[in-house]
Amino acid sequence: MGLLYICFSVIVLTLYHGVVVNSGITSSFVRQEAKSVDMPFTSDVFIHPPGYNAPQQVHITQGDHVGRAVIVSWVTQDEPGSSTVVYWADKSHQKQNATGRITTYKYYNYTSGFIHHSIIKNLEFDTKYHYEVGTGHTTRRFWFMTPPAVGPDVPYTFGLMGDLGQTYDSNLTLTHYEMNPVKGQAVLFVGDLSYADHYTFHDNSRWDSWGRFAERSTAYQPWIWTAGNHELDYEPSIGETKPFKPFLHRYRTPFRSSGSTEPLWYSIKRASAYVIVLSSYSAYGMYTPQYQWLLEEFPKVNRSETPWLIVLMHSPWYNSNSYHFMEGETMRVMFEPWFVQYKVDLVFAGHVHAYERSERISNIAYNIVNGECTPVVDQSAPVYITIGDGGNIEGLANNMTEPQPKYSAYREASFGHATLEIKNRTHAYYNWHRNSDGYAVRADSVMFFNRYWHPKDDSTSKT
Ligand SMILES: *[C@@H]1O[C@H](CO)[C@@H](O)[C@H](O)[C@H]1NC(C)=O
Ligand SMILES: *[C@@H]1O[C@H](CO)[C@@H](O)[C@H](O)[C@H]1NC(C)=O
Ligand SMILES: *[C@@H]1O[C@H](CO)[C@@H](O)[C@H](O)[C@H]1NC(C)=O
Ligand SMILES: *[C@@H]1O[C@H](CO)[C@@H](O)[C@H](O)[C@H]1NC(C)=O
Ligand SMILES: *[C@@H]1O[C@H](CO)[C@@H](O)[C@H](O)[C@H]1NC(C)=O
Ligand SMILES: *[C@@H]1O[C@H](CO)[C@@H](O)[C@H](O)[C@H]1NC(C)=O
Ligand SMILES: [Fe+2]
Protein backbone atom coordinates (compact mmCIF):
# COMPACT_ATOMS: atom_id res chain seq x y z
CA MET A 1 0.00 0.00 0.00
CA GLY A 2 2.76 2.41 1.04
CA LEU A 3 4.82 1.53 -2.04
CA LEU A 4 1.77 1.88 -4.26
CA TYR A 5 1.17 5.30 -2.80
CA ILE A 6 4.75 6.36 -3.52
CA CYS A 7 4.45 5.11 -7.12
CA PHE A 8 1.28 7.10 -7.58
CA SER A 9 2.95 10.16 -6.11
CA VAL A 10 5.80 9.91 -8.56
CA ILE A 11 3.38 9.66 -11.45
CA VAL A 12 1.39 12.60 -10.14
CA LEU A 13 4.53 14.69 -9.71
CA THR A 14 5.60 13.81 -13.25
CA LEU A 15 2.23 14.86 -14.57
CA TYR A 16 2.43 17.97 -12.50
CA HIS A 17 5.68 18.94 -14.19
CA GLY A 18 3.95 18.39 -17.48
CA VAL A 19 1.42 20.97 -16.44
CA VAL A 20 4.10 23.51 -15.59
CA VAL A 21 5.73 23.48 -18.98
CA ASN A 22 2.55 23.44 -21.05
CA SER A 23 -0.20 25.97 -21.08
CA GLY A 24 -3.59 24.84 -19.81
CA ILE A 25 -4.35 21.21 -20.30
CA THR A 26 -7.42 19.30 -21.32
CA SER A 27 -6.86 15.96 -19.69
CA SER A 28 -6.69 13.06 -22.10
CA PHE A 29 -7.86 10.68 -19.39
CA VAL A 30 -10.18 8.10 -20.95
CA ARG A 31 -13.16 7.10 -18.90
CA GLN A 32 -16.14 4.91 -19.50
CA GLU A 33 -19.20 6.89 -20.42
CA ALA A 34 -21.98 4.83 -18.91
CA LYS A 35 -25.03 6.88 -18.09
CA SER A 36 -25.43 7.59 -14.39
CA VAL A 37 -28.63 6.12 -12.99
CA ASP A 38 -30.19 6.73 -9.61
CA MET A 39 -29.84 3.94 -7.10
CA PRO A 40 -33.26 2.28 -6.58
CA PHE A 41 -35.19 3.01 -3.38
CA THR A 42 -34.41 -0.53 -2.22
CA SER A 43 -30.63 0.15 -2.19
CA ASP A 44 -28.60 -0.32 0.98
CA VAL A 45 -27.77 3.40 1.11
CA PHE A 46 -31.47 4.29 1.46
CA ILE A 47 -32.37 1.88 4.27
CA HIS A 48 -34.68 3.39 6.89
CA PRO A 49 -33.31 3.10 10.40
CA PRO A 50 -35.27 0.39 12.21
CA GLY A 51 -38.05 1.13 14.69
CA TYR A 52 -41.22 3.18 14.82
CA ASN A 53 -40.58 6.87 14.11
CA ALA A 54 -36.79 6.44 14.22
CA PRO A 55 -34.90 9.64 13.30
CA GLN A 56 -33.51 9.56 9.76
CA GLN A 57 -31.69 11.89 7.36
CA VAL A 58 -29.55 13.26 10.19
CA HIS A 59 -27.37 16.17 9.11
CA ILE A 60 -25.39 18.93 10.79
CA THR A 61 -24.10 22.32 9.72
CA GLN A 62 -22.33 25.22 11.38
CA GLY A 63 -24.77 27.12 13.60
CA ASP A 64 -23.09 30.48 14.22
CA HIS A 65 -20.41 32.70 12.71
CA VAL A 66 -17.33 31.22 14.40
CA GLY A 67 -18.00 27.50 14.87
CA ARG A 68 -19.20 27.25 18.48
CA ALA A 69 -22.73 26.21 17.46
CA VAL A 70 -24.07 23.31 15.41
CA ILE A 71 -27.50 22.95 13.83
CA VAL A 72 -28.69 19.34 14.04
CA SER A 73 -31.50 18.35 11.66
CA TRP A 74 -33.41 15.10 11.13
CA VAL A 75 -36.75 13.70 10.01
CA THR A 76 -39.25 11.50 11.79
CA GLN A 77 -41.80 9.89 9.48
CA ASP A 78 -44.66 8.66 11.66
CA GLU A 79 -45.32 11.38 14.22
CA PRO A 80 -43.63 14.57 15.45
CA GLY A 81 -41.73 12.87 18.29
CA SER A 82 -39.07 14.67 20.31
CA SER A 83 -37.11 17.65 18.98
CA THR A 84 -34.51 17.36 21.70
CA VAL A 85 -30.85 16.68 21.00
CA VAL A 86 -28.97 15.24 23.97
CA TYR A 87 -25.25 16.00 23.75
CA TRP A 88 -22.08 15.77 25.77
CA ALA A 89 -18.38 16.36 25.35
CA ASP A 90 -16.34 13.20 24.82
CA LYS A 91 -14.45 13.71 28.08
CA SER A 92 -17.51 14.61 30.14
CA HIS A 93 -20.53 12.72 31.44
CA GLN A 94 -22.60 15.82 31.86
CA LYS A 95 -25.38 15.52 29.31
CA GLN A 96 -27.15 18.59 28.05
CA ASN A 97 -30.28 19.14 26.01
CA ALA A 98 -31.05 21.42 23.09
CA THR A 99 -34.65 21.50 21.95
CA GLY A 100 -35.58 22.80 18.54
CA ARG A 101 -38.54 23.11 16.25
CA ILE A 102 -40.49 20.97 13.84
CA THR A 103 -41.55 21.98 10.38
CA THR A 104 -43.47 20.18 7.62
CA TYR A 105 -44.40 21.09 4.08
CA LYS A 106 -46.49 19.85 1.19
CA TYR A 107 -45.31 19.71 -2.41
CA TYR A 108 -48.03 18.92 -4.96
CA ASN A 109 -49.37 15.62 -3.57
CA TYR A 110 -46.36 14.87 -1.33
CA THR A 111 -46.46 15.54 2.40
CA SER A 112 -43.15 15.68 4.23
CA GLY A 113 -42.31 13.89 7.44
CA PHE A 114 -41.63 15.92 10.59
CA ILE A 115 -38.45 17.88 9.96
CA HIS A 116 -36.55 18.76 13.14
CA HIS A 117 -33.98 21.53 13.50
CA SER A 118 -32.25 22.02 16.85
CA ILE A 119 -29.31 24.27 17.52
CA ILE A 120 -26.59 23.44 20.03
CA LYS A 121 -24.77 26.56 21.24
CA ASN A 122 -21.79 27.53 23.38
CA LEU A 123 -19.71 24.53 22.44
CA GLU A 124 -15.98 24.42 23.20
CA PHE A 125 -13.66 24.72 20.23
CA ASP A 126 -11.68 21.74 18.98
CA THR A 127 -13.69 19.25 21.01
CA LYS A 128 -15.38 15.98 20.22
CA TYR A 129 -19.08 15.84 21.11
CA HIS A 130 -21.49 12.95 21.05
CA TYR A 131 -25.16 13.56 20.38
CA GLU A 132 -28.38 11.60 20.38
CA VAL A 133 -31.72 12.15 18.67
CA GLY A 134 -34.91 10.12 19.03
CA THR A 135 -36.38 8.45 22.09
CA GLY A 136 -36.41 5.03 23.76
CA HIS A 137 -35.05 2.19 21.66
CA THR A 138 -35.07 4.29 18.48
CA THR A 139 -32.50 6.67 19.96
CA ARG A 140 -29.62 7.15 17.53
CA ARG A 141 -26.16 8.35 18.53
CA PHE A 142 -23.63 10.27 16.40
CA TRP A 143 -20.63 12.53 17.04
CA PHE A 144 -18.84 15.56 15.60
CA MET A 145 -15.72 17.65 16.18
CA THR A 146 -15.99 21.38 16.66
CA PRO A 147 -13.39 23.36 14.70
CA PRO A 148 -10.37 24.94 16.39
CA ALA A 149 -10.80 28.56 17.47
CA VAL A 150 -10.61 31.02 14.59
CA GLY A 151 -7.03 32.14 14.00
CA PRO A 152 -4.61 32.98 11.21
CA ASP A 153 -2.37 29.91 11.22
CA VAL A 154 -4.86 27.23 12.20
CA PRO A 155 -4.57 24.25 9.82
CA TYR A 156 -7.88 22.95 8.58
CA THR A 157 -8.99 20.60 5.80
CA PHE A 158 -12.15 21.09 3.76
CA GLY A 159 -13.73 18.58 1.42
CA LEU A 160 -15.31 19.91 -1.76
CA MET A 161 -18.24 18.37 -3.57
CA GLY A 162 -21.00 19.52 -5.85
CA ASP A 163 -23.95 18.34 -7.91
CA LEU A 164 -23.96 15.07 -6.02
CA GLY A 165 -27.36 13.49 -6.70
CA GLN A 166 -28.02 9.86 -5.76
CA THR A 167 -26.67 7.64 -8.53
CA TYR A 168 -24.16 4.81 -8.22
CA ASP A 169 -21.57 7.44 -9.21
CA SER A 170 -22.73 9.73 -6.39
CA ASN A 171 -22.13 6.84 -4.01
CA LEU A 172 -18.63 6.41 -5.44
CA THR A 173 -17.88 10.11 -4.99
CA LEU A 174 -18.95 10.02 -1.36
CA THR A 175 -17.01 6.80 -0.79
CA HIS A 176 -13.86 8.31 -2.33
CA TYR A 177 -14.23 11.36 -0.12
CA GLU A 178 -14.53 9.12 2.94
CA MET A 179 -11.65 6.87 1.91
CA ASN A 180 -9.29 9.65 0.81
CA PRO A 181 -6.20 9.51 3.06
CA VAL A 182 -6.57 13.30 3.25
CA LYS A 183 -9.31 13.59 5.84
CA GLY A 184 -11.77 16.42 5.25
CA GLN A 185 -13.12 17.95 8.47
CA ALA A 186 -16.10 19.78 6.91
CA VAL A 187 -17.60 19.81 3.43
CA LEU A 188 -18.04 22.90 1.31
CA PHE A 189 -20.94 21.81 -0.85
CA VAL A 190 -21.49 23.93 -3.97
CA GLY A 191 -25.14 23.08 -4.61
CA ASP A 192 -27.49 20.62 -6.33
CA LEU A 193 -28.21 17.98 -3.70
CA SER A 194 -30.89 15.41 -4.51
CA TYR A 195 -32.05 15.97 -8.11
CA ALA A 196 -35.56 15.04 -6.94
CA ASP A 197 -36.80 17.46 -9.60
CA HIS A 198 -35.74 14.95 -12.23
CA TYR A 199 -38.87 12.94 -11.35
CA THR A 200 -42.50 13.55 -12.24
CA PHE A 201 -43.98 16.08 -9.84
CA HIS A 202 -40.46 16.42 -8.37
CA ASP A 203 -41.12 13.29 -6.32
CA ASN A 204 -39.97 14.61 -2.97
CA SER A 205 -39.39 11.13 -1.58
CA ARG A 206 -36.11 11.51 -3.53
CA TRP A 207 -35.29 14.36 -1.15
CA ASP A 208 -35.83 11.89 1.69
CA SER A 209 -33.74 9.17 0.10
CA TRP A 210 -30.93 11.66 -0.52
CA GLY A 211 -31.01 12.62 3.14
CA ARG A 212 -30.66 8.95 4.13
CA PHE A 213 -27.87 8.39 1.59
CA ALA A 214 -25.79 11.38 2.69
CA GLU A 215 -26.32 10.78 6.42
CA ARG A 216 -23.21 8.63 6.74
CA SER A 217 -21.20 11.84 6.22
CA THR A 218 -23.61 14.69 7.04
CA ALA A 219 -24.37 13.37 10.55
CA TYR A 220 -20.68 13.44 11.51
CA GLN A 221 -19.26 16.56 9.91
CA PRO A 222 -20.86 19.84 8.94
CA TRP A 223 -21.75 20.36 5.32
CA ILE A 224 -21.80 24.02 4.37
CA TRP A 225 -24.72 24.41 1.98
CA THR A 226 -24.92 26.40 -1.23
CA ALA A 227 -28.21 26.44 -3.16
CA GLY A 228 -28.18 25.26 -6.78
CA ASN A 229 -30.78 25.29 -9.53
CA HIS A 230 -31.99 21.82 -8.52
CA GLU A 231 -32.96 23.32 -5.16
CA LEU A 232 -35.43 25.71 -6.85
CA ASP A 233 -38.25 23.18 -7.31
CA TYR A 234 -40.18 25.94 -9.06
CA GLU A 235 -43.01 24.28 -11.01
CA PRO A 236 -45.99 26.56 -11.68
CA SER A 237 -47.68 23.88 -13.81
CA ILE A 238 -48.43 21.95 -10.59
CA GLY A 239 -48.99 25.03 -8.46
CA GLU A 240 -45.50 25.07 -6.91
CA THR A 241 -44.49 28.71 -7.18
CA LYS A 242 -42.41 29.20 -4.02
CA PRO A 243 -38.74 28.76 -5.05
CA PHE A 244 -36.51 26.58 -2.80
CA LYS A 245 -39.45 25.23 -0.77
CA PRO A 246 -38.18 21.67 -0.08
CA PHE A 247 -34.55 22.79 0.36
CA LEU A 248 -35.36 25.58 2.81
CA HIS A 249 -37.56 23.33 4.93
CA ARG A 250 -34.93 20.61 5.08
CA TYR A 251 -31.59 22.43 5.23
CA ARG A 252 -30.70 25.28 7.55
CA THR A 253 -27.86 27.80 7.37
CA PRO A 254 -26.61 30.23 10.06
CA PHE A 255 -27.45 33.26 7.91
CA ARG A 256 -28.55 35.63 10.69
CA SER A 257 -25.16 35.49 12.43
CA SER A 258 -23.58 37.12 9.37
CA GLY A 259 -26.23 39.82 9.09
CA SER A 260 -27.93 38.18 6.12
CA THR A 261 -31.68 38.36 5.73
CA GLU A 262 -32.03 35.13 3.73
CA PRO A 263 -30.72 31.56 4.27
CA LEU A 264 -29.42 31.46 0.68
CA TRP A 265 -26.47 33.83 1.18
CA TYR A 266 -24.34 34.08 4.32
CA SER A 267 -20.84 33.68 5.66
CA ILE A 268 -18.97 31.69 8.29
CA LYS A 269 -15.52 31.71 9.80
CA ARG A 270 -13.99 28.32 10.33
CA ALA A 271 -10.42 27.94 11.63
CA SER A 272 -8.33 30.16 9.31
CA ALA A 273 -10.96 30.47 6.57
CA TYR A 274 -13.67 32.99 5.88
CA VAL A 275 -16.29 31.38 3.67
CA ILE A 276 -18.85 33.48 1.81
CA VAL A 277 -21.79 31.61 0.26
CA LEU A 278 -23.71 33.25 -2.58
CA SER A 279 -26.95 32.36 -4.34
CA SER A 280 -26.77 32.21 -8.14
CA TYR A 281 -30.58 31.98 -8.26
CA SER A 282 -31.53 34.92 -6.08
CA ALA A 283 -31.46 38.52 -7.20
CA TYR A 284 -27.98 40.08 -7.09
CA GLY A 285 -28.47 43.25 -9.11
CA MET A 286 -27.70 46.60 -7.62
CA TYR A 287 -29.82 47.48 -4.54
CA THR A 288 -31.03 43.89 -4.07
CA PRO A 289 -30.65 42.33 -0.60
CA GLN A 290 -27.88 39.99 -1.72
CA TYR A 291 -25.93 42.80 -3.41
CA GLN A 292 -26.32 45.05 -0.38
CA TRP A 293 -25.24 42.28 1.99
CA LEU A 294 -22.11 41.41 -0.02
CA LEU A 295 -21.18 45.07 -0.35
CA GLU A 296 -21.14 45.33 3.45
CA GLU A 297 -19.66 41.88 3.95
CA PHE A 298 -16.30 42.16 2.19
CA PRO A 299 -14.97 45.02 4.36
CA LYS A 300 -15.71 42.92 7.48
CA VAL A 301 -13.22 40.22 6.50
CA ASN A 302 -10.08 40.60 8.61
CA ARG A 303 -7.25 38.72 6.93
CA SER A 304 -5.16 38.91 10.12
CA GLU A 305 -7.78 36.72 11.72
CA THR A 306 -8.94 34.62 8.73
CA PRO A 307 -6.29 34.77 5.97
CA TRP A 308 -8.16 32.48 3.56
CA LEU A 309 -11.08 34.13 1.78
CA ILE A 310 -13.18 31.56 -0.05
CA VAL A 311 -16.42 32.09 -1.99
CA LEU A 312 -18.95 29.39 -2.87
CA MET A 313 -21.59 29.74 -5.56
CA HIS A 314 -23.40 27.33 -7.84
CA SER A 315 -23.04 28.73 -11.35
CA PRO A 316 -19.38 29.27 -12.32
CA TRP A 317 -18.10 32.59 -13.69
CA TYR A 318 -15.26 31.02 -15.67
CA ASN A 319 -16.29 27.84 -17.45
CA SER A 320 -14.93 26.63 -20.78
CA ASN A 321 -17.35 23.73 -21.07
CA SER A 322 -20.11 24.20 -23.63
CA TYR A 323 -22.61 23.13 -20.96
CA HIS A 324 -23.95 26.14 -19.05
CA PHE A 325 -21.52 28.32 -21.01
CA MET A 326 -21.68 31.93 -19.75
CA GLU A 327 -24.59 31.29 -17.37
CA GLY A 328 -22.55 32.85 -14.56
CA GLU A 329 -21.72 35.93 -16.59
CA THR A 330 -24.28 38.34 -15.17
CA MET A 331 -23.18 37.72 -11.60
CA ARG A 332 -19.54 38.03 -12.64
CA VAL A 333 -20.25 41.43 -14.11
CA MET A 334 -21.82 42.57 -10.84
CA PHE A 335 -19.32 41.20 -8.33
CA GLU A 336 -15.94 40.48 -9.93
CA PRO A 337 -14.41 43.91 -9.18
CA TRP A 338 -15.01 43.30 -5.46
CA PHE A 339 -13.44 39.84 -5.63
CA VAL A 340 -10.26 41.39 -7.03
CA GLN A 341 -10.33 44.42 -4.72
CA TYR A 342 -10.68 42.19 -1.63
CA LYS A 343 -8.25 39.57 -2.95
CA VAL A 344 -10.47 36.50 -2.73
CA ASP A 345 -8.24 33.42 -2.71
CA LEU A 346 -10.50 30.78 -4.19
CA VAL A 347 -13.95 30.55 -5.74
CA PHE A 348 -15.67 27.17 -5.89
CA ALA A 349 -18.69 26.53 -8.08
CA GLY A 350 -20.60 23.53 -9.43
CA HIS A 351 -23.38 23.28 -12.00
CA VAL A 352 -21.17 22.01 -14.84
CA HIS A 353 -20.77 18.26 -14.42
CA ALA A 354 -17.04 18.24 -14.97
CA TYR A 355 -13.90 19.54 -13.31
CA GLU A 356 -12.06 22.72 -14.24
CA ARG A 357 -9.44 24.92 -12.56
CA SER A 358 -8.52 28.39 -13.81
CA GLU A 359 -5.38 30.44 -13.43
CA ARG A 360 -5.64 33.75 -11.54
CA ILE A 361 -7.42 35.97 -14.01
CA SER A 362 -9.85 38.84 -14.06
CA ASN A 363 -11.96 40.57 -16.64
CA ILE A 364 -12.84 43.85 -15.03
CA ALA A 365 -11.22 46.41 -17.30
CA TYR A 366 -14.11 46.40 -19.75
CA ASN A 367 -16.32 49.45 -19.48
CA ILE A 368 -18.68 49.04 -22.46
CA VAL A 369 -16.74 51.42 -24.74
CA ASN A 370 -13.10 50.31 -24.45
CA GLY A 371 -13.40 46.83 -25.97
CA GLU A 372 -11.12 45.34 -23.28
CA CYS A 373 -13.22 42.27 -22.68
CA THR A 374 -10.61 39.50 -22.57
CA PRO A 375 -9.66 37.89 -19.25
CA VAL A 376 -6.12 38.87 -18.22
CA VAL A 377 -3.63 37.38 -15.78
CA ASP A 378 -4.24 39.08 -12.43
CA GLN A 379 -2.37 38.10 -9.26
CA SER A 380 -5.02 39.81 -7.12
CA ALA A 381 -7.74 37.62 -8.58
CA PRO A 382 -9.03 34.30 -7.28
CA VAL A 383 -8.52 30.89 -8.81
CA TYR A 384 -11.90 29.62 -10.07
CA ILE A 385 -12.64 25.95 -9.58
CA THR A 386 -15.65 24.11 -10.98
CA ILE A 387 -16.32 20.98 -8.96
CA GLY A 388 -19.80 20.02 -10.19
CA ASP A 389 -18.62 16.47 -10.82
CA GLY A 390 -20.39 14.69 -7.96
CA GLY A 391 -22.01 12.14 -10.26
CA ASN A 392 -25.71 12.97 -10.55
CA ILE A 393 -28.33 11.51 -12.88
CA GLU A 394 -27.68 14.02 -15.68
CA GLY A 395 -24.28 12.47 -16.44
CA LEU A 396 -21.00 14.12 -17.45
CA ALA A 397 -20.62 17.40 -19.31
CA ASN A 398 -18.02 16.24 -21.80
CA ASN A 399 -18.29 18.79 -24.60
CA MET A 400 -15.65 21.48 -24.08
CA THR A 401 -15.31 24.71 -26.01
CA GLU A 402 -12.31 24.66 -28.36
CA PRO A 403 -9.63 25.77 -28.21
CA GLN A 404 -9.12 25.68 -24.45
CA PRO A 405 -8.98 29.30 -23.28
CA LYS A 406 -5.65 30.48 -21.85
CA TYR A 407 -7.18 31.08 -18.44
CA SER A 408 -8.19 27.42 -18.11
CA ALA A 409 -5.38 25.55 -16.36
CA TYR A 410 -6.92 22.09 -16.21
CA ARG A 411 -10.22 20.62 -17.35
CA GLU A 412 -11.60 17.12 -17.44
CA ALA A 413 -15.04 15.51 -17.62
CA SER A 414 -14.72 12.90 -14.84
CA PHE A 415 -16.59 12.43 -11.57
CA GLY A 416 -14.73 13.23 -8.36
CA HIS A 417 -14.21 15.51 -5.37
CA ALA A 418 -11.46 17.76 -4.02
CA THR A 419 -9.76 18.57 -0.75
CA LEU A 420 -8.25 21.85 0.43
CA GLU A 421 -5.64 21.50 3.16
CA ILE A 422 -4.96 24.88 4.69
CA LYS A 423 -1.51 24.66 6.28
CA ASN A 424 -1.01 28.16 7.65
CA ARG A 425 -1.61 31.76 6.58
CA THR A 426 0.50 31.45 3.44
CA HIS A 427 0.04 27.93 2.05
CA ALA A 428 -2.92 25.71 1.19
CA TYR A 429 -2.51 22.40 -0.59
CA TYR A 430 -5.31 21.56 -3.00
CA ASN A 431 -6.07 18.23 -4.69
CA TRP A 432 -8.70 17.10 -7.13
CA HIS A 433 -9.44 13.42 -7.04
CA ARG A 434 -11.24 11.37 -9.71
CA ASN A 435 -13.48 8.42 -8.81
CA SER A 436 -11.92 6.07 -11.33
CA ASP A 437 -8.53 6.23 -9.59
CA GLY A 438 -7.42 4.63 -6.33
CA TYR A 439 -8.34 6.46 -3.13
CA ALA A 440 -4.90 8.02 -2.67
CA VAL A 441 -4.36 9.25 -6.22
CA ARG A 442 -4.25 12.99 -6.82
CA ALA A 443 -5.24 13.89 -10.36
CA ASP A 444 -4.73 17.67 -10.11
CA SER A 445 -2.57 19.16 -7.34
CA VAL A 446 -1.65 22.76 -6.60
CA MET A 447 -0.06 24.59 -3.69
CA PHE A 448 -2.04 27.81 -3.44
CA PHE A 449 -0.40 30.90 -1.98
CA ASN A 450 -2.55 33.22 0.07
CA ARG A 451 -3.39 36.46 -1.76
CA TYR A 452 -3.03 38.64 1.33
CA TRP A 453 0.01 37.15 3.09
CA HIS A 454 1.99 35.61 0.25
CA PRO A 455 0.69 36.93 -3.08
CA LYS A 456 3.33 35.14 -5.18
CA ASP A 457 2.53 33.68 -8.56
CA ASP A 458 1.11 30.18 -8.01
CA SER A 459 0.02 29.56 -11.58
CA THR A 460 0.67 26.18 -13.19
CA SER A 461 0.57 27.17 -16.88
CA LYS A 462 3.01 29.22 -18.91
CA THR A 463 1.10 32.23 -20.15
C1 LIG B 1 -33.19 15.85 28.16
O1 LIG B 1 -33.90 15.15 27.16
C2 LIG B 1 -34.11 13.79 27.47
C3 LIG B 1 -34.65 13.14 26.22
O2 LIG B 1 -35.65 13.92 25.63
C4 LIG B 1 -35.04 13.69 28.68
O3 LIG B 1 -35.24 12.35 29.02
C5 LIG B 1 -34.39 14.43 29.84
O4 LIG B 1 -35.29 14.49 30.92
C6 LIG B 1 -34.01 15.85 29.45
N1 LIG B 1 -33.22 16.44 30.50
C7 LIG B 1 -33.36 17.71 30.86
C8 LIG B 1 -32.44 18.18 31.94
O5 LIG B 1 -34.17 18.46 30.35
C1 LIG C 1 -49.10 11.74 -6.73
O1 LIG C 1 -49.75 11.71 -7.96
C2 LIG C 1 -49.20 10.79 -8.92
C3 LIG C 1 -49.93 10.92 -10.24
O2 LIG C 1 -51.29 11.07 -10.05
C4 LIG C 1 -49.24 9.37 -8.37
O3 LIG C 1 -48.61 8.50 -9.26
C5 LIG C 1 -48.55 9.34 -7.02
O4 LIG C 1 -48.66 8.03 -6.46
C6 LIG C 1 -49.12 10.36 -6.08
N1 LIG C 1 -48.36 10.37 -4.86
C7 LIG C 1 -48.90 10.45 -3.67
C8 LIG C 1 -47.97 10.49 -2.51
O5 LIG C 1 -50.11 10.46 -3.52
C1 LIG D 1 -22.50 2.59 -1.72
O1 LIG D 1 -21.19 2.66 -1.21
C2 LIG D 1 -21.03 1.98 0.02
C3 LIG D 1 -19.62 2.27 0.53
O2 LIG D 1 -18.68 1.98 -0.45
C4 LIG D 1 -21.28 0.49 -0.20
O3 LIG D 1 -21.17 -0.18 1.03
C5 LIG D 1 -22.68 0.32 -0.74
O4 LIG D 1 -22.93 -1.03 -1.00
C6 LIG D 1 -22.89 1.13 -2.01
N1 LIG D 1 -24.27 1.05 -2.42
C7 LIG D 1 -24.64 1.01 -3.70
C8 LIG D 1 -26.10 0.87 -3.95
O5 LIG D 1 -23.86 1.09 -4.62
C1 LIG E 1 -8.10 41.86 12.95
O1 LIG E 1 -7.77 40.68 13.64
C2 LIG E 1 -6.61 40.83 14.46
C3 LIG E 1 -6.27 39.44 14.98
O2 LIG E 1 -7.37 38.86 15.61
C4 LIG E 1 -6.91 41.84 15.57
O3 LIG E 1 -5.76 42.00 16.36
C5 LIG E 1 -7.29 43.17 14.92
O4 LIG E 1 -7.69 44.06 15.92
C6 LIG E 1 -8.44 42.96 13.95
N1 LIG E 1 -8.67 44.21 13.22
C7 LIG E 1 -9.83 44.78 13.18
C8 LIG E 1 -9.92 46.02 12.37
O5 LIG E 1 -10.81 44.34 13.77
C1 LIG F 1 -20.68 20.71 -28.46
O1 LIG F 1 -20.76 22.12 -28.27
C2 LIG F 1 -20.73 22.86 -29.48
C3 LIG F 1 -20.63 24.33 -29.12
O2 LIG F 1 -21.65 24.68 -28.26
C4 LIG F 1 -21.96 22.52 -30.31
O3 LIG F 1 -21.93 23.23 -31.53
C5 LIG F 1 -21.99 21.02 -30.58
O4 LIG F 1 -23.16 20.67 -31.24
C6 LIG F 1 -21.87 20.24 -29.28
N1 LIG F 1 -21.71 18.83 -29.58
C7 LIG F 1 -22.39 17.89 -28.94
C8 LIG F 1 -22.08 16.48 -29.34
O5 LIG F 1 -23.21 18.13 -28.07
C1 LIG G 1 3.45 27.20 5.88
O1 LIG G 1 3.19 25.92 5.29
C2 LIG G 1 4.08 25.60 4.23
C3 LIG G 1 3.56 24.30 3.61
O2 LIG G 1 3.43 23.31 4.58
C4 LIG G 1 5.50 25.50 4.75
O3 LIG G 1 6.37 25.21 3.70
C5 LIG G 1 5.86 26.84 5.38
O4 LIG G 1 7.14 26.75 5.96
C6 LIG G 1 4.86 27.21 6.46
N1 LIG G 1 5.15 28.54 6.95
C7 LIG G 1 5.44 28.75 8.21
C8 LIG G 1 5.72 30.15 8.58
O5 LIG G 1 5.46 27.85 9.02
FE1 LIG H 1 -26.79 22.94 -11.39
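Residues 1-22 have pLDDT under 50 and may be disordered.
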